[in-house]
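Notes, p. 3: input format for complexes.
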Amino acid sequence: MKSRIKYICTNCGYDSLRWLGRCPECGEWQSFTEEIIETKKNKDVSAKTLSAYKLNDIPPASEERIKTNIGEFDRILGGGFIPGSVILLGGDPGIGKSTLAMQVASSIHKTVLYVTGEESVQQIRLRSSRLNIKNEDLYILAETDLHSILKTVKSLNPVLVIFDSIQTMSRSDFENSAGTITQIRECTSRILEEAKKAQFTALIIGHVTKEGIIAGPKILEHIVDTVINFEGESGSVYRILRTQKNRFGSTNEIGIFEMMSTGLEEVKNPSSIFLGSRNINNSGSAVTASIEGTRPILLEVQALVTPSHYGNPQRITTGFDSRRLSILLAVLERRASLRLSASNVFLNLAGGVRIDEPAIDLAVCCSVASGLLDKVVNNKTVLVGEVGLGGEIREVSSTEKRILEAEKLGFQEIIIPLSNKKAFESGSIKIKRVSHLTEALRLILG
Ligand code: TYD
Ligand code: MG
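Output follows (446 residues plus thymidine-5'-diphosphate):
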């Protein structure tokens, strides 16, 4: 075996023989770190002819999932853990990853091993008493050497192994220290191999910094089966679990939790929370119904429009794509004759959620128009529709679900695209259809 030095981009994993100031792959500056790479001799000699399966001859695998009984968590996984799969749980430090992992570990009534490289067993004990955990089959191991950990796994034979965190684990057959790209990548591949062989599920925790980097999670996304992110606005007690990649389920699901003094509580009815602290007499506020995964969520879009005294008006968003906002502002200006080029626009999705669904466009446009004209949108109205560049209101999916959710929460009126013909007229909520932005604005703001 011979070893040599390579330079690896900590952002995307691109490797180079020379140090580079800027990564040619992802464009990141100053992201290269030195890593020792060990290369084995060419092993072609040991290659042999294998027998391949005919697709129809492969016996169907029993896709038996292990339920954690934490509904929000099971749902985002697509119905529970798949034995032998590897899940990466990423998130900012302090967001609650260890807490979530601990709660998941304790709610499976089977053998679970929790490996921690970050805390002592006493600290884990302290947390578990806070969370009121009583699981007879939960084992704790404070260790960072992966080979020893996997040996322990073999003797314990658990259904779930939690690695908290991957940045603290290391393999003694590599010279690099824990937390380097090589260690993170090699440890994960080894865990993956072992999980497939012994059919346990590995839940790997990875820290992510504010910029979404730190050596690790980015590179692991390709290796693991499922990537879930734990997010939350600082200062908010709500936490959102989002699947970013899932080989065994949909990637649109989100799970919502509230951080309490006794751990994370599932939020079963998110709409009522997102609308909970709404000030209904403010201009610049509009309610929309978004579909997250399979579930409708009602939420408030808030816009603050102020005169800009300098040439360059500000456009700042939280929870919404800022480029999308710029486009919608241009549409409002051009197609609905609203003068916004001399105004600062601040847009916020209340409650700390982030939504990428175009169906909330109409609510965004109406909240901005409402803010600009200082006219209040009826607080019993929900707005749904994608806005096209011509100002036309385009069809959205799952209208029924949105209508029912709005009705359930006591809204009296919902505005939907004219092209959504199928939407039924149900009980108490009035359905209005619009085909153009100006029509919607006239209807809402007079
Ligand atoms: P933790 O799970 O340690 O975060 P991570 O592993 O992502 O770094 O949780 C950190 C925060 O959660 C910490 O600030 C304390 C808070 N917390 C609660 O509010 N309630 C609880 O029951 C627990 C265990 C933690
Ligand atoms: Mg932790």
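Residues 97-98, 118, 164 surround magnesium ion (ligand 2) (CB under 6 Å).
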